[in-house]
């Protein structure tokens, strides 16, 4: 018998939560975004078998699940019996997602959450009258060689001549400056103010969850990104490049240097968290990254 409980985010004894469910991460996102954070916990008897991170906002008295740009995914933590047969694991996972879907429907009026690509069996949500909208992200398997198209190889060759330096270091002022350029150029609108984003960066950097990687020229940052580390996986959550440097291949070189560093450090996968901006999607495709599907779960009443 499976039971569902909503609890304030906290560590789970003898379990490792993904970064999207990490209590410090969730509390930081919630405070900056003015949301209420929850763990939706699924029990089998007294054993916790799943945790789903959620963010609530009350709208006109209704309980609504919202997404924050600070948390691209709301990744499901699922713990199945290691020694079970594959068929048993499949059935157990299905029963758990069905219980979670029922818990979501009974507690919230409207729902919108992004599952990670690992949760590809979404039948439990569909069978409980929820929507599963397909979205895409770009990833790179860090155990494989990057194979860019000829035009990107030319960009890389051009960038190598610019005396760029790839280095790690926190510099929120220059990073926010690059993001402001991106906001104007791509009509990108974060759902928190810049001071909130700075607070997010500093808190997670202090906790060892976030790193800033930069491409510099003569001491000035011309391309920068923020990455989250989650076990052997890395998420590239923000990236921005100065216009002139972009034309000289800086963004391509920055991505390649990041991949090389992560490979040396033993990570297995880099997720670029989306492919929704056409120009950026074409860039990532030409660079040789792989497209991967994930699902956004919505309540049936949502449009």
Q: What are the SSEs and their pairings?
A:
Blueprint: E1 2-7, H1 23-33, E2 36-44, E3 47-59, E4 62-65, E5 77-78, H2 86-107, E6 112-114, H3 123-126, E7 130-141, H4 150-160, E8 165-168, H5 172-186, H6 194-206, E9 210-217, E10 220-230, E11 233-241, H7 243-247, H8 250-264, E12 269-271, H9 278-287, E13 290-299
Parallel strand pairs: 11-12
Antiparallel strand pairs: 1-2, 2-3, 3-4, 3-5, 6-13, 7-12, 7-13, 8-9, 9-10, 10-11
Helix pairs in contact: 1-6
Please characterize this protein's 3D structure:
With 303 residues, the protein is α+β, with helices and mostly antiparallel strands. It has two domains: 2-134 and 294-299, 3-Layer(aba) Sandwich (Aminopeptidase); 148-287, Gcn5-related N-acetyltransferase (GNAT) (Aminopeptidase), CATH 3.40.630. It has nine helices and 13 strands. The radius of gyration is 20 Å and the shape is globular. The protein starts with a strand and ends with a strand. The mean pLDDT is 93.
